[in-house]
Amino acid sequence: MDAHHNIVRVSNVAKTFTMGKVEVQALQGVSLEVKAGEYLSIMGPSGSGKSTLFNMIGGLDKPTSGKVYIDEVDIAQLDAYELAWLRCRKIGYIFQTFNIIPVMTALENVTLPMVFAGMNNDAAVDKGLELLELVGLGDRFQHKPSELSGGQQQRVAVARALANDPAIILADEPTGNLDLSTGEEIIKLLKTLSRETRVTVISATHDFKMLNVSDRVVWVRDGTIDKIEERDELSISVGQIGAREAAATGGRPE
Amino acid sequence: MTEKYPFEQESDAGKGSVKRLVVLPFRKSVEISFKSIKARFFRSMITTLSLVLAVSFLSFVYISNDAANGLLAADDPDLRRTLVQAGYDLAPGADRVDSSPKQRWIAILSLLVCAVGIVNAQLMAVTERFREIGTMKCLGALDRFILRLFMLEAGMQGLAGAAMGALVGGLFALLNAWFMFGAVAWAHLPWAVVTLSLIKGIFVGCLLSLIGVLYPAVLAARMQPVEAMRAEH
């Protein structure tokens, strides 16, 4: 397997939102390449365009100009069926708010993408149980989301994201609604999965716990990429992270 | 390579056979819709209640007339006199009772009010379920899956509500006939016609429920999955 091809390529993407009569440039010409199997974090304060960039990568939003390629396919060229197929088979989504479908049990949530993918029911149930086991919820497959804690719901979401063996897992603030230790568990889980299954993980976050596990960190600010840091450049000592956080959230670095 | 990246053959003849295949089997849709109704039972019941009332009124009118027609068909001058006394507008030679324009207007009005009520309730249900719909779309659901789920739900609600309404209305009509004319009304009851009236009532109710959900369901189906990503719901 070619481990170093680009699974995601963002080329000169700009996005302009029209809010009333004012035009807001959320992204101004961003280019980015993500290698297969990479664990990438997109960091940035809220309003930096981080979420917009993230939605572009996930095929959830269309750029005003520029191109987004997933597996070297320009997603702007895809029709509704192909986009649905892409979302179903190629990308697994994890949300800040978990988004477990409330009327279904944990198992049904996990099997739903497999049903969409045309897998037969028994195979889907088997695989669903296996995935729930993998995220540590093997005994809770019959539970409804309302009977699960936030961390457990997010685990179900991780299992669901893995349902169709996607090439990419997109996690939007996966730890945003979780407490410190639960968030850490989810991060650890994602890291383990990325290492074991070689799935590409892209997460938008401002959780500094993510830095520890990321192969690369993309810092977004004011709609452009501020800098991209490789893992070995990342200094993970607590004091520095604190300084970085101050720089990221308040004003310019200097 | 070909196995792994199937949609690189973008313009090939084989395009679309594998990579466009996203399915939701009909049985599974029914299952999901049914569970969805069950999980929100109270809510669904309230939505359906206006339908029950409207259809029961319709069926009451239908079946009251059926009962009167049954008595008329007996060709008994005494019964005819009782009918006129009970307020039925019978011309001297007339051999059947039809619903009066007033009755028809009230029935149509009640059905209209009910339809508006259903649209309102379903719009609220769609708003409430924005995140759920968006999530399904992120998991690969097509617009028409969402449409189908909502239509199925409305169809089931319509069938249950209309059946209940028709039965309740019919029962009241029969009791009413019994109070007005005594047991003789039941003896002359044309059961086949009554059954037909019940079916007509159920059909109208289902139709109403489906019409009511159409606009909200289209709205839901067209929703962009990016809505689900927005955390502020």
Task: Give the SSE map.
The complex is a heterodimer of chains A (254) and B (233).
Chain A: E1 6-19, E2 22-35, E3 39-43, H1 50-57, E4 65-70, E5 73-74, H2 80-90, E6 91-94, H3 106-116, H4 121-134, H5 150-161, E7 168-172, H6 180-197, E8 200-205, E9 216-221, E10 224-230, H7 238-249
Chain B: H1 26-39, H2 41-73, H3 77-85, H4 101-128, H5 130-138, H6 143-181, H7 183-187, H8 191-221, H9 226-229
Structural notes for this entry:
The complex is a heterodimer of chains A (254) and B (233). With 254 residues, chain A is of the alpha/beta class. Chain A is built from seven helices and ten strands. Chain A has helices spanning 50-57, 80-90, 106-116, 121-134, 150-161, 180-197, 238-249, and strands spanning 6-19, 22-35, 39-43, 65-70, 73-74, 91-94, 168-172, 200-205, 216-221, 224-230. In chain A, the strands form two sheets. In chain A, strands 6-7-8-3-9-10 form a six-stranded mixed beta sheet, with helices on both faces. In chain A, strands 2-1-4-5 form a four-stranded antiparallel beta sheet. The longest helix of chain A has 18 residues, at 180-197. Residues 250-254 of chain A have low confidence and may be disordered. With 233 residues, chain B is mainly α. Chain B is elongated and about 75 Å long. The interface between A and B is large, with 38 and 40 residues.
Q: Decide which structural class fits the backbone of chain B.
A: mainly alpha
Q: Can you tell me the residue ranges of chain A where pLDDT is under 50 for at least 5 consecutive residues?
A: 250-254
Q: Report the β-strand fraction of chain B as a percent range.
A: under 5%
List the helices and strands of chain A in order.
EEEHEEHEHHHEHEEEH
End-to-end gap of chain A:
44 Å
Number of strands of chain A: 10
Tell me which oligomeric state these chains represent: heterodimer
